[in-house]
Design a protein that fits this description.
By secondary structure, the chain is α/β, with parallel strands linked by helices. Helices cover 37% and strands 23% of the residues. Strands 8-9-10-7-11-12-13-14 form an eight-stranded mixed β-sheet, with helices on one face. It has a six-stranded parallel β-sheet with strand order 3-2-1-4-5-6, with helices on both faces. A hairpin with a 5-residue loop joins strand 13 and strand 14. Helix 1 crosses helix 9, helix 4 runs parallel beside helix 5 and helix 5 runs antiparallel to helix 10. One of its GO terms (molecular function) is nucleotide binding.
């Protein structure tokens, strides 16, 4: 197995580590946290033994492990990933990989120079249910006529924001907001299934902090549009849809996809059989480990291409909406 170090001691890091245990793809050996107490608590919750703890980031990257998984606030991804690559580590960064396309380009070039892998962890595109969606789209591509993807979920931090606090996910300092969280899933949906759009437009609903609490995007393709609805300040139970003229593929969600149906012109709805892992990060853990172990360059190049397009679309969307991060001023 591949030795793994992690940055971040939150729920998503715990889920990823559990996925690596379940699939025997990586072995956790090192944890970085700003405080030793948090790291110790995280390790205890996972019932792990003999894990090395670091509270100094530069010292952490000098340790003997192969790959780092980074799940810190968005604005910290770039510097942490850059330092990891400079120290010869393979890097898996939780989406979005960077705050700007310029940062992405720097990491991409540096990873190539250092001969290490750089992955963006957009876990849902690796799940069996998404692979089934790809199959359906490929089989009916001649009739493809557009899509609507919806992913809106009331953030657990939004009440704090309304109470006058400043959670990272609702600040421009940490590159937060709806687009650079739930929006990443839906843009991946469009890019993987349909390719790079010709035009991107984002109509954002801004919060007092200058960040987007919710909004709607239009991605324009030569013969159809993809409409995207995202939000962290409200809940939506609307399904997502991919259109094939008279027929429609129904997804229960644009990001956390659990069920598929096929609806025909006569309003007959048929279940589309597929699989769903209990831990949604199992498939990406397996695929990242496989690519590195087998040195599968074509598969790696494909994922990197998706990441490049998605992060370019994200920046185009921000520009169209007038959404500015502090990271823009630093670059």
């Amino acid at each position: 197995m591949i030795n793994l170090g992690i940055i971040g001691t939150n729920w998503i890091t715990e889920q990823f580590v559990k996925a690596t245990d379940e699939t025997k793809s990586f072995s956790l050996t090192h944890v970085y946290s700003r405080t030793e107490a948090k790291a110790e608590s995280f390790i205890a919750d996972l019932d792990k033994k003999n894990i090395q703890i670091s509270t100094d980031l530069e010292a952490f990257f000098k340790e003997d492990f192969d790959t780092v998984y980074i799940a810190s606030p968005n604005a910290l991804h770039f510097e942490q990933a850059k330092l990891a690559i400079e120290n010869g580590k393979n890097v898996i960064v939780e989406k979005p990989i960077t705050s700007t396309i310029e940062e992405f380009t720097i990491l991409d070039k540096l990873a190539h120079e250092k001969n290490v892998y750089l992955f963006e962890a957009a876990r849902h595109i690796q799940e069996p249910i998404f692979k089934k969606i790809e199959e359906v789209v490929a089989d009916h591509r001649a009739d493809l006529s557009g899509a609507t993807f919806s992913y809106m979920k009331y953030s657990s931090r939004y009440d704090d924001f309304k109470a006058g606090k400043t959670p990272n996910v609702f600040t421009t300092k940490f590159s937060g907001g709806a687009l650079y969280d739930l929006g990443v899933y839906t843009i991946y949906d469009a890019v993987v299934l349909f390719g790079q759009p010709e035009k991107v437009c984002y109509d954002a609903e801004f919060l007092s902090s200058g960040i987007d609490g919710s909004g709607s995007l239009t991605l324009s393709y030569p013969t159809f549009d993809v409409n995207i609805i995202i939000g962290k300040t409200k809940n939506s139970y609307m399904s997502s849809e991919i259109y094939f003229g008279r027929d429609t593929l129904l997804l229960d969600n644009g990001g956390d996809i659990n069920h598929l149906d096929w609806a025909d012109d006569n309003k007959n709805i048929t279940d589309v059989p597929t699989n769903k892992s209990e831990n949604p990060m199992d498939s990406e853990a397996v695929e990242f480990a496989r690519i590195m172990t087998e040195k599968d360059q074509p598969s790696y190049d494909k994922l990197l291409k998706y990441a490049r397009i998605v992060n370019r679309v994200l920046e185009q969307a921000r520009t169209s909406a007038g959404l500015v991060f502090e990271a823009d001023e630093e670059n």
